[in-house]
Amino acid sequence: MNMRQEELEDESLEEIRSSRIWLRFIRNKYLIVTAFFIVWMAFFDNNNWIYLERLTAEANQKKADRAWYIREIEQVKKEYQEITSSIHAMEKYGREKYFMKRPDEDVYVFFEDEAKP
């Protein structure tokens, strides 16, 4: 029985030590203040982590939009140069894009079905 008593005392000592470790962390004011600061800055501050992530995503979207608009502007400039180069190019552009016709013509427009497999 003496051996069993020693084992129980060893187990109880381990439990006391582990509870003391937690007590040390809880009583450490620097650790508590640091943890509070991290939680506050991550979730409750006006410039919190979630808000900054949202702003970063929005900024990336704006950069992508800007690049798309720059490409579109270049394409429109190129089309403008082609159209203003000759009257035949202007007529072709008007007929293709805006389905314009001469007074004595009939225009038939065919669209492909997008639902085809």
Note down, in words, how this protein is organized:
It is a single chain. By secondary structure, this protein is an all-alpha fold. It has two domains: 1-45, no CATH class; 48-102. Helices cover 78% and strands 0% of the residues. The chain is built from four helices and no strands. The protein has helices at 2-27, 29-44, 49-85, 87-98. Helix 3 (49-85) packs across helix 4 (87-98). The mean pLDDT is 81.
Keywords:
117 residues; mainly alpha; 2 domains; 78% helix
| Beta-strand percent range | under 5%
Write down the secondary-structure element order.
HHHH
Give the helix level as a range of percent.
over 70%
Q: How far is the first residue's CA from the last residue's CA? A: 83 Å
Quaternary structure type: single chain
Gross morphology is: rod-shaped
Offer a concise description of the structure.
This protein has 117 residues and is mainly α. It has helices at residues 2-27, 29-44, 49-85, 87-98.
